[in-house]
Design goal:
Number of domains: 2
Radius of gyration: 19 Å
Distance between the termini: 17 Å
Strand content: 5-15%
CATH class of the largest domain: Alpha Beta
Number of helices: 11
Bound molecules: N-carbamoyl-L-aspartate
Structural class: alpha/beta
């Protein structure tokens, strides 16, 4: 039987292709579970998981919480704004206090890149990185690749363009690493100011013309502009950005083939993608959300299974 090689899920960088395939196979099983009338299995009974969110989140937090409930885990939720962090407590003290209450696994989102890695070096529980600043967001990349696999049967050989704010996006970085590991061809597209220097070293193509990128790809993953992480202005206005890089029906219809449209959410309708595209048959945005629960169930199940 295949074994998961990791104690934590800190980034896609650290896991092997076999790990990713094992997560996908496990998620296939859990996807059938969550589509049954009775959606719950006892797999993580007796496992206690803390969800620690130092940054805003709707989808990811609810997705993890639902995944935990479907697996019958016990959970505690912690949001930094209402906690002792605002009284000056350090990250390690906060988490160690939670662990002292006998918590087995920690799901953490934090604005600092490397926060999950740091935590894994100092505490005993399994850590899942639910997004660390502009660094990595491994479960998002896994659910995105899983959704491409579901749509096409395979990720290998598919052409995926990631459009938008690559510079500030942990989704972009984790997606690039994951898709490359699985044999996809990856392109990034956006204004030069939002494309990190030396991104080619990750084995991706760079394109600044959206129409060329769309004509090349099988899948377009449209990212949100991360205004909250932008300290300076990277483009003149959101209106100009959407004129050059927004995906609308006209652009989609002008292609001589059908492409699949993805978005990690939250969508800024009318900026990176128009409503008619977001709600069209091309978009698999809600499939991504559904698959997120199955992927997170798989990750937590695999991490918990190797504890004994
Ligand atoms: C992403 C994130 O938080 O990095 N959202 C998510 O997890 N669904 C992308 C974003 O915030 O734009």
């Amino acid at each position: 039987m295949k074994q998961f090689t990791q104690k934590h899920l800190l980034g896609i960088k650290d896991i092997t292709v076999d790990d990713i395939e094992l997560i996908f196979e496990t998620a296939d099983g859990f996807k059938t579970v969550i589509n049954r009338p009775i959606k719950k299995v006892p797999s993580l009974r007796d496992v206690t998981i803390a969800n620690i969110f130092f940054e805003n989140s709707t989808r990811t937090r609810i997705s993890f919480e639902l995944a935990q409930k479907r697996l019958s885990a016990d959970t505690v939720n912690f949001a930094a704004s209402s906690s002792s962090v605002s009284k000056g407590e350090t990250l390690i003290d906060t988490v160690n206090n939670i662990l002292a209450m006998k918590v087995d696994m920690v799901v953490m989102r934090h604005p600092a890149p490397g926060a999950a890695i740091f935590l894994s070096q100092h505490i005993k529980a399994n850590i899942i990185n639910a997004g660390d600043g502009t660094h990595e967001h491994p479960t998002q990349a896994l659910l995105d690749a899983f959704s491409i696999r579901e749509k096409f049967g395979n990720v290998n050989g598919k052409k995926v363009v990631i459009v938008g704010d690559i510079l500030h996006s942990r989704v972009a970085i984790s997606n690039i690493i994951c898709l490359k590991k699985l044999g996809a061809e990856v392109m990034v597209c956006g204004p030069t100011t939002l494309i990190p220097k030396h991104i080619e070293s990750l084995g991706v193509k760079v394109e600044t013309d959206l129409m060329k990128a769309l004509n090349w790809c099988d899948v377009a993953n449209m990212l949100r502009i991360q205004l909250e992480r932008q300290d300076i202005k990277y483009f003149p206005s959101l209106r100009e950005y959407s004129m050059l890089y927004g995906l609308d029906k006209k652009r989609l219809d002008s292609l001589d083939k059908e492409i699949v449209v993805m978005h990690p959410g939250p969508i800024n309708r009318g900026v990176e993608i128009t409503s008619d595209v977001a709600d069209s048959k091309h978009a698999i945005i809600l499939d991504q959300v559904e698959n997120g629960v199955a992927i997170r169930m798989a990750v937590m199940y695999l991490l918990a299974s190797q504890q004994s």
